[in-house]
Amino acid sequence: MSGTIIHEVKPLKGHLTGLYSDGELVCCIDSELAAEKNVKPLREYTVDELRELLSESQLRRARSKALYLLEYRDYSARDLASRLRRDREYGDEAIDAAVEYLTEIGAIDDARYAGNMIRHLISRKHYGRRRILQELSAKGIHRDTAEKALSECDLDESAAITELLEGKFSRDLSDEKGIRRTVATLQRYGYEMGDIMGALREYRDRCEE
To answer: Do residues 169 and 149 share a domain?
Structure first.
């Protein structure tokens, strides 16, 4: 089977090497890979060989970019894959393989990510169980993983509502309009209506005392 003769191998920006045939760019591959595979001018490559080089290059670059992103913050597996796809530099197979590899070595751990995110949502956002599960689902965390992680966190919804009523929303509880607004906000935070109204009654009783 006839192939493509590479006439020029030229370094490009971003740790890439360009393979040219008759002055036309055939493909760009990772420079380290080009060195490892001893890619040189005047060598003939079949379509399958070029495709294999490009596939391996995309996998390496996807892994490298994923590790770079993970240095700055944690990601769920699905969230990281989506982030890599936004670059439009790697094929779906390379991205999926990179995420699978990083999961295997523990660089990505959805259970760990879920636990960290839950603690943030409880301490900083003051969200309730329902909203927390929605946020985790939006990040691609499986329901079972989310439920397990949530069961391991200290979440007392009644105490959380009371804390919000006595702090953040205390100024809004002087009239019915403010109370309705507070109730609606607490529902958006993921708390159940029964728990909200119970906490409100206790809050009013304490105020009257």
So the answer is: no
DSSP 34-101: HHHTT--TTEEE-HHHHHHHHHHHHHHHHHHHHHHHHTTS---HHHHHHHHHHHT-S-HHHHHHHHHH
Residue with more model confidence, 158 or 208:
158
Tens-place pLDDT, residues 155-192? 899 999 999 999 999 888 888 999 999 999 999 999 99
* Residues of the domain holding 203: 156-209
End-to-end CA distance of the chain: 92
Are residues 15 and 63 part of one domain? yes
pTM of the model: 0.84
CA distance 158 to 151: 16
Asked whether 57 and 30 are in contact (CB, 8 A), the reply is yes
